[in-house]
Amino acid sequence: MSLRELRLKRGLTQDQLAKKIPGMSRGRIAAYEGGHRAIDGMSLATALKFCDALHVSNPRKLLEPEGGHADDMDADA
């Protein structure tokens, strides 16, 4: 699943996700989701913050294309 899909699966808006990650802005999330900023270029620390906020155990899930699978998402949605 892509970053956008993971966010939507959790029922979060970009603003809500940004508020869960210190120092993150809605615009930066939009840039990652829209492909204007490379997700594979984000720091490990940033990827781990996204994982924590989205309850994802593997940062590689952030790199999956739209329609990918997130089999290792934690059970609590």
UniProtKB/TrEMBL annotation:
Pfam hit, one: HTH_3
Molecular function GO terms recorded: DNA binding
HTH cro/C1-type domain sequence ranges: 3-62
Xref: CDD domains: HTH_XRE
Highest taxon in the source lineage: Bacteria
Protein name according to UniProt: PbsX family transcriptional regulator
Organism of provenance: Bifidobacterium samirii
